[in-house]
Task: structure prediction
Amino acid sequence: MVLTTAERTVEQNIVRMEQKERLHRRDKVERQRERTVAHHQAISGRDRLSSSDSSARPSEPRSTVEKRDGGQPQIPKEIDRLPLDSGRSSARSSRSSFRSSTNNAAHTADFSVLPPPRRACRPAPDDSSFKTTVKRKGYFFYDENERGEAAIVGTRYKLVLHADDAVVITIKPTTNSDMPTPTSPMDTMLAVIDREKGEVIALTKDRDENGCFHARVDLDRGSYYLLPFCTGCRFRPRMEDKQPKSSAALIEEDLKLSKRFRMVLMNVFDMFDLDDNGLLNREEFNLYNVRTGDETVTDDEWRVVSENFSMSSGELTMKGFVELHQLEAKDAEGDTDDMWLSLAQVGYDSQLQLSEGCPFVLQASSLASELDLTVTGIKALMEDDMEWQALTEYLWSNGQTVTTDTVLTIRQWSSPFYSALLAADTQETRQRYNMDFAHSTNAIINPVVALAEFSPRPQEIQMLLFAMPQHETRPWNLALRATKLQ
Result:
């Protein structure tokens, strides 16, 4: 086949784009594979926590629950001892016991925290009469952070409200034909953060039967960050297959994309079509390119795409998106390594299942005013940026003290559907603790830090873990043995 000058130009431009991405993608995915194995080795014991319907619970006295008023950890001077009283609902909220060993090598404290009684699922508030409703898609993926540790990355948003108004915000996980059928809804929540104050002012606590978390909040005119977050309890990195199956076919003998791969590309296109208009604008295509190749799209590269692939109103069509990958397959002459690297970065495994991705839909509705909702980028959760710190401080301030040993204070924030444990160490020098949750009941636990040897930053609040029930209709609890190491 003789190529025209225009066709050769297209191929040369595409090859240049691919060469810029290839090394980035290969290195990144190789690190990700190593990280996944290490991550599962580190948390291999947490599946044991989701076992049973019953376990022995401590019967020692429980401490009073102290409500925190300020922004710094508060440690009570004394712990009041209360007798067990199963007939009082307040007595079920916290139970703790402390035991100091005679061995000088360690100080051990045991406590058991019973989450609040489960509240029935609630439908989202009716927003049919609201003036403005804006929807945006989003997603969570697994990646590695700068320290080479497992990290959930996700889309973030900015909301601009043009007048003081009531706003209903919902976030709901979605599925596509490439995803395994979920046994329970993914845990996708959202925090509303005041941009000027850097404070969380609302959190989606209620949930309907389909996994849609929601909140209604009165907001002043202004700009807000919307932070979707996932506890990582149900959304986990995939396990490496001990006997990996042969990979699904991406291309056929004539170098055409396989039917299955074309369907996957259509689902990927739909996932990155964040405004759900059936097209990819430059910002959306750029997010895809950054995710799969670590490179932003330059003006020249976008011009090449615009001039040579199917476009509509200046945006890339699904047909053009598939055509671009068809040309990549042709240029690679049957080598699918780069295609697999790209698929891994958006959550796909060797069987073309979306096993490490969690798409969702976010919606904001205002009662009487106009609002704007824009995507600000993709960023790792659980990092020390302003938004994550704001969420950490909110959960600490609105939580309950469940134990303190004059040095380490642990607080719990709970909703009817999940809990968070946080810790603060008042020492000026770093201490080390072993946090053992092996005796918890019906609990899925996702540690945010290394619990086997937790070394809190002095005089700072840190997230320990998120937890939620394995079986939502059964009782569950968290049982912790905290041992101070020498």
User: Anything to note?
Assistant: The two ends are 73 Å apart (CA to CA).
